[in-house]
Write a structure and sequence with these properties.
The longest helix has 17 residues, at 16-32. The chain has one domain (12-137): Nuclear Transport Factor 2, Chain: A, CATH 3.10.450. The protein is built from three helices and six strands. The protein has 159 residues and is α+β, with helices and mostly antiparallel strands. It is globular, with a radius of gyration of 15 Å. It has a six-stranded mixed sheet with strand order 2-1-6-5-4-3.
């Protein structure tokens, strides 16, 4: 399959079930913290707004993710479907991480995603904020990597 024919299932138009699957696949990818692999979920010409950064293209997205995970240590993320329609999905999420000085944070955010017909994300608009927390306030305690299926989601954790 050539690059122009890349596909990332599930494909739009989304059903509730396929939108939930797409969100969990994105969460799993980001929890894996492999910028090269994660970047392949985005179209070559993807456009992002993440906090104050404006990212254009898959290569810029990959470099952004490399910087992100070099700074945000022991990163653990939970995403939850908020809404969907046709080729768009809205999610809310929270993730926990610490900096190189051992200061812990929980970052809360919302994202709006738009996908092309091949299921690659063409637009990602993220709004988020960081809240300092103590290590004892952490709620995400699985081993680094994919969140186990039996770990509570955001709603179950009251977030």
């Amino acid at each position: 399959m050539s690059k122009s024919e890349e596909q990332r299932h599930p494909l739009p138009p989304f059903t509730r079930e396929s939108a939930i699957e797409k969100v969990r696949l994105a969460e799993n990818g980001w929890n894996g913290r492999n910028a090269e692999k994660v970047s392949l979920a985005y179209s070559e010409n993807t456009q992002w707004r993440n906090r104050s950064e404006f990212i254009s293209g898959r290569e810029e997205a990959k470099r952004f993710l490399e910087r992100k995970w070099a700074k945000e240590l022991d990163y653990r993320l939970i995403k939850e479907l908020w809404a969907f329609e046709e080729n768009r999905i809205a999610v809310r999420y929270a993730y926990e991480w610490h900096d190189d000085s051992g200061n812990w944070f929980r970052s809360y955010g919302n994202e709006n995603w738009e996908f092309n017909e091949n299921g690659l994300m063409t637009n990602r608009f993220a709004a988020l904020n960081d809240v300092p927390i103590s290590e004892s306030e952490r709620l995400f305690h699985w081993p680094l990597g994919i969140r186990p299926d039996d770990h509570p989601g955001l709603s179950e954790l009251g977030l």
